[in-house]
Amino acid sequence: MNWVIWALLSALFAALTAILAKVGVTGVNSNVATAVRTTVVLGFTWLLAVPGLQDSPLGSLSRRTWLFLALSGLATGASWLCYFRALQLGKASQVAPVDKLSVVLVLVFAAVFLGEKLTVREYAGAGLVATGALLIALK
Q1: Is the pTM of this model over 0.70?
Q2: For the chain, what is the domain count?
Q3: Which of 18, 80, 109, 138 has the fewest CB atoms within 10 Å distance of its CB?
């Protein structure tokens, strides 16, 4: 499968995450709910990763790789904590589109920090994503 199929599957599971999480955070501290979710994700991903340790043993990872994966993990954790609190306080149909403003931020960060060259079409797309997210969220 190519990257488009994987990205579409990611979008599908992200959508399911919003709906399932909205139901799951009802009557529960959002940080506790995030911890439960994270524990499940941790177990699930290690179940999938263990066979891959033959190709990429943990000892073969560079310090730079460890650093950036750790920072990515901290960013993910912060995102999930904020997302679950937002779901607890707001409607899933409003929270999820605002969360997807991350698409716009990724384009900006990729240009600024990774030196990726964006086209007018990509800037226009980012503008449309931002406009759509705000139109949906600000019912």
Answers
A1: yes
A2: 2
A3: 138
Q: Is the pLDDT of residue 73 over 80?
A: yes
Residue 71: which domain range? 1-51+58-90
Domain assignment present for residue 95? The answer is no
Do 75 and 124 lie in one domain? The reply is no
Per DSSP, 62 falls in state -
Which CB contacts under 8 angstroms, 24+ apart, belong to 42-48? Answer: none
60: Cβ contacts below 8 Å, ≥ 6 apart: none
Angstrom distance (rounded) from CA 33 to CA 85: 9
138 lies in some domain: yes
- 39 is written with which tokens? 């524990």
Clarify whether residues 20 and 81 are in a common domain: yes
Give me the sign of the Cα torsion angle 75, 70, 22, 36. Answer: negative
For the cut 80, the answer to whether the pLDDT of residue 139 exceeds it is no
